[in-house]
Amino acid sequence: MPWCEQCDAEVDTEDLDAEETCPTCGSETLAHRKQPWWFKFLAVATVIYLAYRLFQGITWVVHHV
Question: For the purposes of burial, counting CB atoms within 10 Å of the CB of 27, is it exposed (0-12), middle (13-18) or buried (19 or more)?
């Protein structure tokens, strides 16, 4: 989502005009905010954990069938 540095708020894409200015303050310096490092770390850790649990589930089924 676009981010207005002056308003310190997110701007909906639908509210932007052709020049991509902030509808609240009229600033033209809109930037896209990056995700924090801990969110990316959490996402990667979750994927690794779920892959490991899937592997455990498959091996359990193979040994009990």
Answer: middle
Residues 54 and 29 in one domain: no
Residue 19 has pLDDT above 90, yes or no: no
- Answering whether pTM is above 0.90, one says no
Helix (H, G, I), strand (E, B) or coil at 2: strand
Sequence-ordered list of residues with C-beta below 8 angstroms from that of 29, at least 6 positions apart, any chain? 4, 5, 6
Tokens of 13: 């894409």
pLDDT over threshold 80, residue 55? yes
Give the position of tokens 């969110």: 39
Are 29 and 41 members of one domain?
A: no
The C-alpha atoms of residue 54 and residue 61 are separated, in whole angstroms, by 11
Domain interval for residue 22? 1-33
